[in-house]
Amino acid sequence: MAKKDIDWGSLPFGYMETDYRYVSNFKNGAWDNGELTKDANITLNECACVFQYAQTVFEGLKAYTTKDGRTVVFRPDLNADRLRDSALRLKMPEFPKERFLEAVDMVVKANADWVPPYGSGATLYLRPFMFGSNSVIGVKPADEYQFRILTTPVGPYFKGGAKPITIRVTDFDRAAPHGTGNIKAGLNYAMSLYAIVDAHEKGFDENMYLDATTRTKVEETGGANFLFVTKDGKVVTPKSDSILPSITRRSLVQVARDILGLEVEEREVFVDELPDFAECGLCGTAAVISPVGKIVNHDKEILLPAGMENMGPVTKKLYDTLTGIQMGTIDGPEGWVHEIKID
Ligand SMILES: *Cc1c(COP(=O)(O)O)cnc(C)c1O
What we know:
By secondary structure, the protein is of the alpha+beta class.
């Protein structure tokens, strides 16, 4: 085994074709055995359900090297559960959990040379996804599906320090008001493209979406959940059934409560209370936590006490603890770090 000759530290978050991907097809009511393939392209009929009615869901997780040289992924069982929930919501078949976990192992092992070394900050990003593959013109679910896991090496999320970002409260909706906001699906991302381009054009890094019904409560950003810290050190995270249940956020909540002994509240968070928070972060697989320094709510600017230079102290502690668990330098809960044996 020889690692690819790549400058891992300067890789962007982009797609680079690796050697293998995992593919399994669903036809006549059953999944085939699945296999690894070198073919990065997919040929589909022009009328495939995924093209016409966006019947597609996905997941995202990372494979990386721990300090003691093991190749691991973080809590892949939760990605399997969430893919199932997303698939069922779009009337797609379930890809069995044990098969999902086996596919993750197979595709990481086959691409072991693409898993960046410890300390580089880079990771091998895994993108499991499923889509309706046969032709459908009347509105109905497909009968045939493909499940696939592609992999691509991605660079460190924070190059040169985790600088806090500026976000705005947006009037756009992230997803259908009473629809699919709690599933990981391309359709929600398609709905967010206009809003994110608009935010960037106006000088903001991200959007803070509000609940569509009352527009008074904080939901999430386009691709990450919120975590706030109160001035007396309590961790607060929005509870809503229309946000995507982030695995990173759920893990950070457990770290805060059980390891750091912090008080955690999962509850509705109102826009009006934003000025009361000391710290704010966005949590997701890519960054773990991305600190927010400023929130612009239309004509009001909220500068969080943590400021625009560094992560707030509680955010930093959460970040260091979870990344320590992931990298094997801190003991975490049983089963969080799943090792893949590379022979
Ligand atoms: C993937 C995703 C997240 C983050 O979830 P993780 O499991 O932590 O990566 C948050 N919000 C949305 C909308 C997402 O698609």
